[in-house]
Amino acid sequence: MNEFPDITTIARALSVPSKMKILDALMDHKYHTATELAKLSRITPQTVAYHLDEFLKNGWVGMAKSGRFHYFFLKDTNVVALLERLSPVSPEKRARSKQRELVLAKDELFRTCYDHMAGRIGVLIATALTQKNYLDPEFNLTDKGTNFFQDVLHIDLSLLHKQKRQFTTKCLDWSERQYHVGGAIGHAMLLSFKDQGLVMPDNKSTRAIALTSKGTTFLQTHIAISLE
Q1: pLDDT of 140-182, one tens digit each?
Q2: Considering the domain boundaries, does residue 165 fall inside one?
Q3: Is the pTM of this model over 0.90?
Q4: Which residues, 6 or more positions from 140, have their beta carbon under 8 angstroms from its beta carbon?
Q5: By the 8 A CB rule, do 82 and 90 touch?
Q6: Which one of 40, 58, 105, 116 has the largest count of C-beta atoms within 10 Å of its C-beta?
Q7: Which of 75, 107, 124 is the C-terminal boundary of a domain?
């Protein structure tokens, strides 16, 4: 029989800034080496290695080996959800430079939240999907939405239902203080947007994404979002 969950493990992680920097760097849903994480987090490689070892033991982070390189990634989506839910109630800090302000502005406009779309545009998409009755107020898929996701976004819904994760979730957006679409359907939407050339990564930010001209037209045509 297992003991009660040890929430002090979570408390210790949240109270150490260097640990939080590593977890935040991994929120881009990519695989990173320890060296890359040190650079992104601006902490020493030794500290990164120490914290990663703890995260591996906790089951929060996974590791994949390719040749002589070891790549780390966020393994537990519950950790992702926890970080996102805590962000809206965390004290805000002023940007330390004009360059940082530009990066933050792009993140707040449109970014990835681990493996789905977030930011102002992410919230606009979620709102439009409910207004079109493709999702109900709790973000459950409707009959009308089934046709949209299959025919317009080319998403195989039967495969999503087989995944060992929530099909759809309401994910509270830390910058907008409103919900965007998470879960398996949120991830599938992001992949569809990428495959159709509707979004592209922003080279100045690890998490910001940008709409292409095709993406802008798509949003206006299919879910009546005008960004002008």
Answers
A1: 999 999 999 999 999 999 999 998 888 999 998 888 889 999 9
A2: yes
A3: no
A4: 168
A5: no
A6: 116
A7: 75
